[in-house]
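Lab notebook, bench 4. Still working through the backlog of constructs that have no structural model yet. Next entry is a single chain of 458 residues. Request: give me the C-alpha cells for it.
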Amino acid sequence: MYYYLKEKYGIKFILNPSFQIKNNIESIRLAKDILGDSYVCSCDDYFVVNPFNATEDHSFYAGLQVGYKTNEMYVDLGADGRILGMEKGRSSGRILLGHSFWTKDFCTKFLELAEADRSPGKYNSYFWEWLVKDNLQILPPFYFKEYPFGSIHEFDFFEELRDFDKSYVFNSNSKIISNIKSVFYCADEDIVAFRCINEGLTNTSFIFRIGGEDYIYRHPGEGTEKIINRRNERTSLEHAKALGIDPTYIFMDVNEGWKISKYVPAFREPEYSSFEDSKRVIKVMRQLHSSPVKVDYGLLPWEDARDIEFLLKTKDPSCFEPYEELKDRIGRLYESTLGDGVQKCFCHGDTYRHNWMFEPTGNVILIDWEYSGESDPGIDVGYYIVDAMYSYDDARAFIREYLQDNWTAQLERHYLIYTALIAYYWFVWAMYRESCGANMGESLNNWLDMARLYSLLG
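Model written out:
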C-alpha cells in the first residue's frame, strides 16, 4: 500500500521478511547501513504541524502530557529531560508518541544491543521501545521532547482515524471496507473494532465487528494465486459447511481470494502430546474422509511439489541441488504406494494444529480449506504427524487409531510414506513462499527434517 511513495517521492524501501517473527527491531537492524543522525518514525503517526528540523542536538522521543490511561509507554524524566524510566499501564503522565531522533552514537549502541539479541531472541515479539526501556542505563542519553496536546496523533485502529477525520465515518475509500459492505449490505460506519491476527503462514487476516458480532476477513498472501485455486477453495468451504465440519464460512470472492468467516471467540487448539486430543482430531478426519463429497480437484503432494520446484527453478536454477537425493528417495517411496488400493476421498490438506478449534461445548471445527480436495487420505493423517514432529512410534499409534479395524501392515506403511510425502510437499512449498518474500521461520527446517526422517523407510 506504500509503494506509490517510491515513484512520488523517491522513497527507498527496505523489506523486512521476518517482521511477523522479529517485529520492527529487525527492521531497524536491516537499515543499519543508513542509520545515523536519523529520525525513526512509525507509519501510523500523523502530525498537525511539521515536526522535522534540518538538525537536532540530541537523541529524543516525542510525546505528550495526558491525564488519562492509554496503551502507550509512560516515562519518568530527570531534571534535564532525560528519560530515566519507561513503563506501561499508568493512568496519567507523559507518554511517548510520534517520531524519535537518534544520533549516530545512539544508533551504534542500539544496533550493538539488537545484534546481540538476534540469537536469544528475547525481543523478537517486541517493538524497539522495549529494547531501549531495558537498556536506558547503558545507551547514550535519550531525552523526552514534549509537544502540545493534539499536535501528534497515532491511528492504531480505524475508529481512531474516524474520530479525527469525520469524513472516514461515511466513506473510507478502502477496497476491503467495500468488500465487507458488499457482503453485509451495511454502511462504512457499521464496521468497527478492527484487530489484526498474526497467526497464519499464508495469508493476512483481521477481525472486525458488525452489529455486535465479530467476523474474520482473510486477505490472500503474495504469490499464493500461483499455487491455490480459489474457486476450488470456495467449493470445498461450501461442502465443509454442509458437513458441519466448518460452520464458520460466510463468503469468498474467487477472483481476488478474500474470504469472510464467523469469528469463534472461545476455543483451544489440540495438544500434540495428548492422545485424547488426537482421538478427537481423528474422529473428524474419519468423518471427512468417509463423506460422499466428490470433487474434480485435489492436492497431489508428489506431482504438486514437482510443479512448485519448476516455479522455484525459474527464479534460481540451482536452488534444488542440495535436495536431489531427498527428492529421489521421496519419488521412489511414492511409486511404491501406487498399487496400495487406497481410495481417494475428500481431504483437508492442511491439518496442522492451528486449523483445529476445540470449543468449550465439545464441538470440533476444522478451518482453512485452501489445499483441500479429492486426495489420498494420507495427506491429512501425515501432515498432523509432520507438524507434531512425531517419532515413528507416535506416528504408528496415530495411524492405528485412524485405521482401527482396517489396520494392516501394508496400510500402515502407506500412511507412513504419505507422512514423508506431505512433509516434502510443505518443505518445497515453504521454499517457494520464501522466494516470494515470506519468512517461514523454523517451519521450513521442521518440514525438511521430517521429510528426511520418514524418507528413510526401508
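Notes after review: The first strand starts at residue 38 and ends at 40. The chain has a mean pLDDT of 89. Flag for follow-up if needed.
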